[in-house]
Design brief:
2 copies of one chain form a homodimer.
Chain A (H helix, E strand, L loop, with lengths): L8 H18 L6 H7 L4 H8 L2 H12 L12 H13 L3 H14 L3 H28 L13 H16 L5 H15 L5
Helix pairs in contact in A: 1-2, 1-4, 3-4, 4-7, 5-9, 6-7
GO molecular function (chains A, B): DNA-binding transcription factor activity; transcription cis-regulatory region binding
Organism (chains A, B): Glycomyces sambucus
Keywords (chains A, B): DNA-binding, Transcription, Transcription regulation
């Protein structure tokens, strides 16, 4: 805690922005801590002290740029929550898509990155989805123990990734709306 | 046509096997046509004559290794077709998962590979899914114009990819069975 307190939120944001710029331009695998230190006008010692290594630094930078889908979303209906949480991501453009796909790929051969990504990106998203589903169950929109619950985080993640791979098109608001109405809500037993 | 007829199916299979070995070991981006030629004891001229370049050669090799999910599947029920088509892939182990994810990632920055992957891998899968859904509609299992049809190929693809990214675990037969029963079939209006 004490070690981290030496960076102001502004300084941290500058470092994260430098990380994201470098990863977008060169790809996760090709970025070095020295490059980040130079780009953010700091030292590798500072970077290691605060983030332990490249995996945590990069994943924290991606998380800082864009909170997990559904975090802090509460529109009053399950459909509204899903729409708000997913369209925010696609409307920011293809950059987040590229960052997520690139990290997911690098993580296949980098266990530290894989762990950092699951702890810092996937786990908060899964908890946020659980909160949204608990509220929907409390409102009577779904059964609290609907068996499809376990798949919802992966479906939302997939809705942002699979369409581009399969068709060459980035998902847009219309695609996500149809996906939520015709796949996610029916799986949860909600019919439009 | 005439140009291709000079390779026997056995010779083609050997070349494809060499391609898959090299891509698994080094990653798509790092494999050169010269390496493939050496490994498969042929010439780069032969490789270019038959496959035009690395994108088509690699994607054809991956397709040769493993046909698209659902191709040639016809069990007599929609649930049976989905199960047969997807579990065949996970039961072959993590190698196909790695090959698919690696290609999808490389395709993000390689338009020729992106096109080859969609034409040679994704399009046949989409047609196979359509055939399976048409048969299910003819049997009365689903509506012929169920609005979730457009998502089925991407759902099946996602079921093989998203779970690993999110949880660190490869999907197994149990996971896929639950996914089909609790997500894909309900989305199509089929209740267990």
């Amino acid at each position: 805690m004490e070690r981290r307190s030496r960076l102001s939120p502004e300084r941290e944001a500058e470092i994260f922005a430098a990380v994201v710029r470098l990863v977008m331009e060169h790809g996760y695998e090709n970025v070095t801590m020295q490059q980040v230190a130079t780009e953010a006008r700091t030292s590798t010692a500072t970077l290691y002290r605060h983030w332990n290594g490249k995996p945590r630094l990069v994943v924290e930078a991606v998380r800082h740029r864009r909170p997990a889908p559904l975090e802090d979303v509460d529109t009053g209906s399950l459909r509204g929550d899903f729409l708000a949480g997913t369209t925010a991501i696609v409307e920011s453009g293809p950059d987040d898509h590229d960052l997520m796909s690139g990290l997911a790929n690098a993580a296949r051969t980098d266990p530290d990155l894989d762990r950092a990504q699951r702890e810092i990106l996937a786990a908060p998203m899964r908890r946020a989805v659980d909160t949204v589903l608990d509220r929907a169950a409390a409102r009577g929109e779904i059964d609290a123990d609907a068996p499809s619950r376990e798949f919802v985080p992966e479906l939302l993640f997939a809705s942002l990734i699979a369409h581009k791979v399969h068709t060459g098109e980035f998902p847009d608001r219309d695609y996500l709306t149809r996906f939520i109405d015709h796949v996610v809500l029916p799986a949860l037993g909600v019919r439009p």
